[in-house]
Amino acid sequence: xxxxxxxxxxxxxxxxxxxxxILAFLRTTAPMGVWTVTRLVDGSQVYLSVEDVSLGVSAGDxxxxxxxxxxxxxxxxxxxxxxVQNVPAYRAIAEAESRPIAAYVGYPLVTASGQLFGTMCxxxxxxxxxxxxxxxxxxxxxxxxxxxxxxxxLERTRLERDIEHANLRAQKDSLTGLLNxxxxxxxxxxEQPRARRFGEAHTVICxxxxxxxHINDTLGHPAGDDFIRRAGQVLHANARECDLVARVGxxxxxxxxxxxxxxxGAALAExxxxxxxxxxxxxxxxxxxxxxxAGLEHAWSTADTAMYERKRNRRGASPAR
Length: 321
Hints:
Elements: E1 3-6, E2 9-12, H1 15-29, E3 34-41, E4 44-52, E5 62-64, H2 69-74, E6 80-81, H3 88-96, E7 103-110, E8 116-124, H4 136-168, H5 181-198, E9 203-209, H6 212-219, H7 221-238, E10 244-247, E11 252-257, H8 262-278, E12 283-289, H9 295-315
Antiparallel strand pairs: 1-2, 3-4, 3-8, 4-5, 6-7, 7-8, 9-11, 9-12, 10-11
Helix pairs in contact: 1-4, 4-5, 6-7, 7-8
């Protein structure tokens, strides 16, 4: 494995591995109740990597960004508070916490483009020694190193994704020209570890056409094929260029919307549903957000369940699956 080195300490050049190594180092060098690397996602601070000794924090946990000490730190509050009672902005948050928070350390993780990705931070159940601030320059250096590794890993991942998606697009459904089911399954498998590594916000959308059996029975299968083909054209035309659209079953389609939070994902699902309706193609649409722990496969299952719930509501009775 390629590594970067500081002194004699090897630091992996993958963001998640580097996060674990740096947090483990801080746990012994600058002990606190918990050290964590977080990401700001969809208005929440999500814990990506965690070294917890005493506070019960786990990877995948999240809190509203507006209620965090890290938000206050980014806004200009001290990077190190050996006693949060001495910093009013931190004290107010600590008093509202269910966990005992007496000390805080935090530094932002900012990408090369200037975007706030998240933070590297620590929380202590007891106040810190008076000389703890001597660790400040080292912790800041490690946060900057981690941000550099993050940029490198994001760029490498973008290039890998572009190549993989180009290869996947060669696996086309013969009727619609969209990705076929095999390509869809491969894509979910490839993206799953990346979504967990970076805590990325993706939306999965499930679309099931209504009335295909009636068309096949009354107008014939060529008319049914045309119905499916037109649906594929509408979905392709109304998805974003970066989204992947696949035909995953006879009259079922899937869309993965990359880098889309809950609001933009819901807006895309509504846009696709409206475009199909305007084209005279009745369909039921469900969507779900990918989460750090559940991942894309769970989001796909959740979107499928939401789609069938919508179908039941549209028909007024449970449809045959």
